[in-house]
Amino acid sequence: MATETLTLGKALNTGLRRALENDPKVVIMGEDVGKLGGVFRITDGLQKDFGDQRVIDTPLAESGIIGTAVGLAIRGFRPICEIQFDGFVYPAYDQIVSQVAKMHYRSQGKVTIPMVIRIPYGGGIGAVEHHSESPEAYFAHTAGLKVVTCANPQDAYVMIQQAIASDDPIVFLEPKRRYWEKGPVDLDAPLSGAYPLHSARVVRPGTDATVLAYGPMVRTALDAATAAAEDGRELEVVDLRTLSPLDLTAVYESVRRTGRCVVVHEAPGNLGLGSEIAARVTEECFYSLESPVLRVTGFDTPYPASRVEEEYLPDLDRVLDAVDRTFGW
Amino acid sequence: MAKGDPAVSSRGRRAAPRSRRAAATAEPELVQLLTPTGERIESATGPDGTEYRVDFTDEEYRGLYRDLVLVRKLDAEATALQRQGELGLWASLLGQEAAQVGSGRALRSQDMAFPTYREHGVLYCRGIDPIMPLGLFRGVDQGGWDPNEFKFNMYTIVIGAQTLHATGYAMGVHMDGKTGTEDGEAVIAYFGDGATSQGDVNEAFVWASVFNAPLVFFCQNNQYAISEPLERQTRVPLYRRAGGFGFPGVRVDGNDVLASYAVTRHALDNARLGQGPSLIEAYTYRMGAHTTSDDPTRYRIASEVEAWQAKDPIARMKAFLDKQQIADDAFFAEVDEQARAEAVHLRERVLELPDPAPVSMFDHVYPHGSPELDAQRARFSTYLESFEGSAH
């Protein structure tokens, strides 16, 4: 039977294994990705089966991981870099923004950097500082990069393979608090004909308000929709999946029907993805809107100590509160 | 730490600024095969006992001289073009011709180079049209050559970033099984003395070392990072840094094209044979400004520049060719004439470089295009067209 129930983490692991099998130029590199299988075990067993030239334990230097991956990409490899935690990506920020993102442009198309930068991101696991951040806006703001994030095991399995097969440099954000959530995964689904990587998807149809979420917040938005339905309100939930480029075609269609739009993300609200989405939805759906586009986000503070992170992170109640406000406008 | 501990007393000795400067900038044990007065040295020994020598034919000696003169002349032409407003900026290599031509000619055809933004001499040796970097500094593109065709990568302006790219590429060479034989591949990473303070360069040293990458780190120590002298970057001679990372380092007279060639060729061949990375510190001097936007009279004295003038890389090669009767006045005149003609030709072509079409800025952001950028391009084109026929 091709469909198995897997955790999101295991789905990623299986997708990575498939990519290593299918293309000898694919290599995985990062801190502790080899013998240990990564601190979240996403690369578990891969070095054992593919060897230490394909699954490379690197020195502890994030700029080095990305910078050497650039050289490997120029050489014709397809490197997959693991950054151990969101808060540790910043030493590599220069290489990502100034080198990875611009190489194709500067060379007028002569050089491509088919690289995937995997980053476990977001909070909710009770971690110490620097382990719970949501840096997606930094990368989505940078031309030349693409940014995607998965929210369920099936998407994790397919999207990681699509990202590896892409010629673009892709920041692949993994919702770490959902690593252990299970779902069905069709392991035989061919990549060709799969749902396109840079496409949003309606994950729950509804008629009364449109709720946009991605990564770890999709589960939260779906839970909110379930609760709202008990109160007689049907929320349409869209999993954005791709943060750069944004795919808002289905969102515009939805908002024109519902007239109300709420964007949810863990990252701080100021200049976050929600700001851009609100601007675009307003431009495209101005005459359909019954209320302003509202954002439910982390606060504009550093990520707080974990004992108060449940208050920092958007949850079901804050989503429903925002939906209520769109009706009270 | 106990009183009288050697480390304490040595730290005490280094406290005086004058001796710190001496520690960083003295000229110990330069590998040199051609003295500033053009005397040929048969062989020179490096710090690890390696004996360096070259065995060139007269034709090859004359060829190196020709390279040096051409590279300097084209560079001077670029500086002049900037002064006349035809380039936005120029980073001159004046004074560093020998380090660049020596190392550039030491590369075998299969070897890959990762330059900074000043390696016009290496670029020339790789067979790239010398107008290419002028396009970059004129602002019509961001470097037009094909890195894979010429085995010479894009210029890198962010200091030191390319050393990691070179390291990764060299790891790839090793993973492709292209080391261990005499026709194996090697990689060279260019950077300067200022770059040695960058994290990326130090990370590249670590990575190249632990992965035994077939890589030569070629540091042109031209004594200044814009205005900052070497002692602001280091308390030890730069080539000795290599020891701490676990690979050999050597300091070569960077104004000696023969020694620069010998040391680089040896290091590249070691790398291609699978013996791992090494560091070359090419000890040289930036005779001109950092770039045309810089004013070096604010931070260095004329006597220092004059002292280095006496070590000029081209003058010593010319003296050698003359004394050994390898070349005569007719040859020198012919090279000068070729350089003059190529500079004129370069100038003519630079003046004819067209500005890119504004909408070309949307090209090549992504390998397979972007519907969003297509839409922005279309809107911007419509906007531009709205001015046609108007006073704008």
TrEMBL record, chain A:
Which CDD domains does the entry mention?
Answer: TPP_PYR_E1-PDHc-beta_like
Read off the InterPro entries from this record.
THDP-binding, Transketo_C/PFOR_II, Transketolase-like_Pyr-bd, Transketolase_C
List, for all copies, the residue spans of the domain called Transketolase-like pyrimidine-binding: 6-181
Q: In the UniProt record, does the keyword Oxidoreductase occur?
A: yes
Q: Which Pfam families match?
A: Transket_pyr, Transketolase_C
Look up the domain of life of the source.
Bacteria
Q: Which SUPFAM superfamilies match?
A: Thiamin diphosphate-binding fold (THDP-binding), TK C-terminal domain-like
Cofactor names from the entry are: thiamine diphosphate
UniProtKB keywords: Oxidoreductase, Thiamine pyrophosphate
Q: Does the keyword Oxidoreductase apply?
A: yes
Supply the name of the protein.
Alpha-ketoacid dehydrogenase subunit beta
Q: What is the lineage of its organism?
A: Bacteria, Bacillati, Actinomycetota, Actinomycetes, Micromonosporales
UniProtKB/TrEMBL annotation, chain B:
**Which cofactors must be present for this protein to function?**
thiamine diphosphate
Kindly state which keywords UniProt assigns to this record, in alphabetical order: Oxidoreductase, Pyruvate, Thiamine pyrophosphate
- Compositional bias segments (type: Basic residues): 11-21
Under the heading SUPFAM superfamilies, the entry gives: Thiamin diphosphate-binding fold (THDP-binding)
Chain segments annotated as coiled-coil in the UniProt record: none
Region ranges (Disordered): 1-28
Dehydrogenase E1 component domain: from which residue to which, for each copy? Answer: 68-345
- The protein here is known as Pyruvate dehydrogenase (Acetyl-transferring) E1 component subunit alpha
Q: What is the lineage of its organism?
A: Bacteria, Bacillati, Actinomycetota, Actinomycetes, Micromonosporales
The UniProt gene name for this protein comes to pdhA
